[in-house]
């Protein structure tokens, strides 16, 4: 699972990428996913030294690609030695073993590469648990083909009894680990649920930032909140979710959470493993979809994000589209074209700050329906309620008459319910 990690402190890994164009496939889509695979390899710390794209009518059961093409790649590797070959789709264990025999080098598939990057980038306990779960879910169905060379143990001195195979022991061990990790993640999800309830009680708006990986989500959150989240020009630069408080121009606070980025061909079990994190999206009052307006396949990236949002129940949430990277002319022109397709959108440069003021206005407009305006006459003896209003409400007017505080406030529905006994019609 961690083959890249084993050599990360020595020389840089050199990688050959292999993709397949099947009958009926659009070649430009395969080229785009291959470009992304190259970025994934570079994010893992490897150097891409070559690519092969094989055209064939269907996937071959034995070697994924035809044996002739496999031998052609093997000849190329003899002249251009590489550390490993990475395929752009999932391989079965049998295909991986067969390819390693022919190519005489290590063979990985796209999911293994993503899991390796995730293992490098997970720094919190929650992130590490989610990565470990994804790794074991990937490994479990592949055990049978990995241990076909083992025979059932025969009876004899010291061996009498059930005679379990190595496969059965390994499967039981991995299933036990999966149960343990899921139990730990359930505690994480329970804690997150309690945190969200606490935020609701304070009336804070919950906003989730989503988007294709490397679209600029972390950079945007840094710009809006003044935080210092790690942000680099690489895929999955940040894996662990980060929540920061952001104040809108009307002085109302909101909590913004930066979530893990999405990509094409994101394996289903990765989405399943990261449900504890992605629940933040499903529970949000507003989703901010950050889009790299510079990317040549921007529409495909938007579609890929929508697909994952639909899977986690977030596609029906109110959404604000933010077209990033307008500091370059091409990005500015693309943002103008794309804004016409979405009623709620903004164009910004998270790097330079251009358009951020207009984005703040859009955020305030999207969230204004969460607040109600009330005129209150609150006795000064209601100290707890007055403290809650001072901390969590927008106080538009405030006067003191005798033993009462006369207030005009904008508050969330939760706090408004507490204030109703003191409302002035």
From TrEMBL:
Record keywords: Cytoplasm, GTP-binding, Magnesium, Metal-binding, Nucleotide-binding
Annotated binding of Mg(2+), by residue: 218, 238
Key word Nucleotide-binding present: yes
Location relative to the cell: Cytoplasm
Residues binding GTP, per UniProt: 211-218, 236-240, 258-261, 324-327, 349-351
Gene Ontology CC terms, in alphabetical order: cytoplasm
A Pfam family recorded for this sequence: HflX_C
InterPro entries: G_HFLX_dom, GTP-bd, GTP-bd_M, GTPase_HflX, GTPase_HflX_N, GTPase_HflX_N_sf, HflX_C, P-loop_NTPase
Cofactor(s) it depends on: Mg(2+)
Family: Belongs to the TRAFAC class OBG-HflX-like GTPase superfamily. HflX GTPase family.
PANTHER family given in the database record: GTP-BINDING PROTEIN 6-RELATED, GTP-BINDING PROTEIN HFLX
Subunit structure: Monomer. Associates with the 50S ribosomal subunit.
HAMAP family: GTPase_HflX
Annotated protein name in UniProt: GTPase HflX
Species of provenance: Pontiella sulfatireligans
